[in-house]
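Exercise 7. Given the components listed, write out the predicted structure of the assembled complex. Treat all entries as one system.
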Amino acid sequence: MVKKGLRLDQIPERVIARFYERFTKSDDGCWTWNGTTKSIGYGYLHIKENRVLKAFLAHRIAYILNYGDIPDGQWVCHTCDNPKCVNPEHLFLGTPYDNWKDAFDKGHLQATYKKLGDANRSTRRLTKSQLVEVLELLDKGVSQSEIARKFGYLSSGPIAMIARGENYIQLVAEIRNKSQSF
Ligand SMILES: [Zn+2]
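Answer.
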């Protein structure tokens, strides 16, 4: 995965130089990436490792160059919601949940939620207390297929969707918020 493991000492000087040539400073303060981008809009920079060219997320490189290595499992999120932005002042560390919650609060996921809501009607619904249990099991690292079996699903798909934050979106947010405030 492109997200994992790049450290400051693995970024060659020439790549750092390339990084600083690849963005334009906008009036709104964003440093907009001009290099390669992928479907969801994040910028990428390629680094050769053992003769293999690997793609790394430009905003993660921006973070590392300015603040140092990213702790394992942490995401680099944008305060400006501009995925192409590599201004370190617009970047903060978060978990995938923070990133998702942030997007949800800002309304970006409402359309997805509506779409999924329609799809949900045709599948078995979990009660809130079942969902609490599913989330606890996921947090403990129990496999998705095992959880799926426990709740009578034929495949791990529905649990995988919950784990990715694509199902029961509002309810999961409620449950997570409650457990965080303890
Ligand atoms: Zn920005």
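Discussion: The two ends are 34 Å apart (CA to CA). Confidence is low (pLDDT under 50) at residues 115-123.
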